[in-house]
Design goal:
Length: 357
């Protein structure tokens, strides 16, 4: 039955963004693209989406529609968002500043939704604002489905478009972009640590944003300064957070040294089964769905750590964002075939459901 459902939904699935590897490095001073691999291939943005939510937030602060200490109400819709989150409860309030810091450090989905509702009245209307702003920036291959980057069959972007957004943030709001260098902050007596661990070890890096879902792979938008020169880079579809970070470091090093990063290095950092053909073939393999889901997720991944009740409610091996169900690619004990089978099945079902809705 699964094979039949797969074939029935395959035509719509072929148009859905998937976690293909991609990377780009841009010099904003000249507009020169220093390296580009699959830069115009559409992928899911995951929490890189929050860069647009932050763009509209900074824009509202700049034009006086928001104040940094303004308190925004937390709705039941926002409080119910999947992790990662700050743990906001319906009926509470949160300041604009804490929403910004929560989105940048912890990639908090509840904070992003609070901001969306505060600026747009509803998340749906805010998404319209996001997509309109994307077009104004020149992000012609991007569409956002929500304010946080939680899995949505409607969202898609490219590394080229995300680089445009990152550059626009630093160009349009220089007074606010220091927020992106925040590694941790105290929220209601709790220390909230960030996900961008590459900033800890790459000299000159002062932003921007991490992203992860099963559908996107491990994404990262970064900017760094060396000898007075600033570069922007975006990686999408990394197979693990560590591999993604290492690729980003290489891309920036090569960019500062005025050389292109070999495309094979970008390919090696991506999922070994990121292509459509591999995913479809894996889904049609004789492995049953029960077997593909049989490996239990350790319970400690779902519990908050004792030392840091906010910052440690994600799997520490992922070092990514938005992970309601753990990515098999981050756990080498689980086979690549199971990963391809599960991801293809989920994507086809999502595509079919979206088409029929």
């Amino acid at each position: 039955m699964f094979a039949a459902a797969l074939l029935a939904g395959l035509s719509s699935f072929m148009g859905v963004a998937h976690a293909g590897y991609a990377a780009i490095v841009v010099n904003p001073a000249t507009g020169q693209v220093l390296s580009a691999v699959n830069a115009d291939e559409q992928n899911h943005p995951a929490s890189l989406t929050k860069m647009m939510t932050l763009y509209l937030t900074f824009q509202a602060l700049q034009n006086g529609k928001l104040q940094i200490d303004q308190l925004l109400p937390v709705s039941a819709w926002a409080a119910a968002k999947a992790p990662t989150k700050l743990g906001l409860r319906a009926g509470q309030t949160i300041s604009v500043r804490d929403c910004i810091l929560g989105m940048i450090t912890k990639s908090a989905n509840d904070a992003a939704t609070v901001m969306a509702e505060g600026l747009g009245g509803s998340e749906d209307h805010f998404v319209e604002m996001m997509n309109a702003q994307a077009l104004r920036i020149g992000m012609t291959d991007t569409r956002f489905g929500n304010a946080s980057g939680l899995p949505d069959p409607d969202d898609a972007t490219t590394t080229r478009d995300m680089a445009k957004l990152a550059i626009a943030l630093y160009h349009d709001f220089p007074q606010d972009t220091p927020y992106f260098a925040t590694k941790e902050f105290v929220f209601r007596g709790r220390l909230v640590r960030g996900h961008n661990h590459l900033m800890d070890r790459y000299p000159g890096m002062d932003g921007l944003k991490t992203g992860f879902t099963d559908a996107s792979g491990f994404n990262l938008a970064s900017t760094a300064v060396r000898d007075g020169q600033r570069l922007f880079a975006v990686v999408m579809g990394g197979r693990t957070a560590a591999v993604r970070d290492n690729l980003m470091a290489r891309l920036l090093d090569d960019g500062f040294d005025h050389r292109q990063t070999p495309a094979i290095l970008v390919a090696e950092a991506g999922s070994t089964h990121s292509s459509m053909a591999h995913r479809v073939l894996a889904a049609l393999s004789p492995i049953g769905s029960a077997e593909a889901e049989a490996v239990p997720v350790p319970q400690h991944h779902h519990r908050r750590g004792k030392r840091d009740p906010v910052a440690r409610n994600i799997c520490t091996r992922h070092r990514g964002v938005t992970c309601p169900r753990r990515n098999l690619a981050a756990h080498p004990r689980r086979s690549a075939t199971r990963l391809a089978h599960r991801n293809t099945k989920r994507s086809v079902i999502m595509a079919s459901s979206h088409r029929n809705s």
